[in-house]
Amino acid sequence: MLHPTRLSARPSARLLRPVALALALLAVPVLLVAALAGPGAAGGDRPVIVSVGGDAANGFDLRYADGSSLHPPTSSEALAECSAYDGRLDRVKCRVRFRTWYRDLGDLQRSLAWHARH
């Protein structure tokens, strides 16, 4: 509790105005840069796949909107890679990972083909 002869516990508006003004002036450039950067300017954007060719046995071919491409291993190459693991559980995890990848690439390939027809 404050003594009646002391100043109140609330800071005066005269002291708060410069602090609020300084915070506002600091916030303006930060907000302006964020607004100008836009939603696609984040460094974590993933590339857009525009076409998928091939199959698991002969190898897939992924083409991206920026012109780059990716060629995942064929199923026989993946099987050889998974066989190199020492532990049985590691080999099983590797095979499941590749099967899931190939399944998803096949689904994406069918989806892109359907989209091209419609």
Description:
The chain is an alpha+beta fold and 118 residues long. The protein has a domain at 49-117. 54% of the residues lie in helices and 13% in strands. The protein is built from three helices and three strands, in the order H-E-E-E-H-H. The chain has a three-stranded antiparallel sheet with strand order 1-2-3, with helices on one face. Strand 2 and strand 3 form a beta hairpin. Helix 2 (75-83) packs antiparallel against helix 3 (88-117).
Summarize the structure.
Helix 2 packs antiparallel against helix 3.
Secondary-structure blueprint:
Elements lengths: L12 H25 L11 E7 L3 E6 L4 E2 L4 H9 L4 H30 L1
Antiparallel strand pairs: 1-2, 2-3
Helix pairs in contact: 2-3
Q: Which percent range describes the beta-strand content?
A: 5-15%
Overall mean pLDDT: 79
Oligomer: single chain
Q: Portion of residues in helices?
A: 40-55%
Succession of helices and strands:
HEEEHH
* Largest β-sheet summary: 3 strands, antiparallel
Give the low-pLDDT segments: none
CA radius of gyration? 29 Å
For the terminal residues, how far apart are their CA atoms?
Answer: 75 Å
Total number of β-strand segments?
3
Given the structure, what is the number of helices?
3
* Sheet/helix structural class: alpha+beta
Strand order of the largest sheet: 1-2-3
The dominant shape is elongated
Keywords:
118 residues; alpha+beta; 3-stranded antiparallel sheet; 3 helices; 3 strands; 54% helix
